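seq:
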Amino acid sequence: MTLPVRRRPGRLPERPLPSLGWGEPLATEFDALFDRMNRLLETVPMAPATAGMMAWAPPADLHETDDAYVIEAEVPGIQREDIDVEISDRELRITGERREREPEGVLRRGTRHTGHFEYRALLPGEVKTGEVRANLADGVLTVTVPKAQAAKPHHIDITES
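struct:
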């Protein structure tokens, strides 16, 4: 079932609360909370000049193997010198910039991101930060982060006395 959306001129759309049986006082508090959130969002500048300065994130996959975490980020057309990989504790950060090229002819449609990009990943376990490797091939940046050697369980034989 869809619910109607209330609209006020110059304001973000609001969604009414479904009846959850909480009573009028709680519904009033939620309405007040939504109003405050809408006012806060209206104060955030979203001018086109500001939106162009925001970083974009390249598509990436994070795999876990027995020995390492492997991140594969798609960065086609970006040179090795324009990419920076940093790791601190368990947070991996890939940053860089795709420079805008001088178009040949008239650009009819542009869907590729340009400018500053950033990818962050919080790795789930302890890692060896000194042994991180990064490789760029065919537009894919592969970062291999070795896991710290945790105490592995081993079998203990029980003897009879």
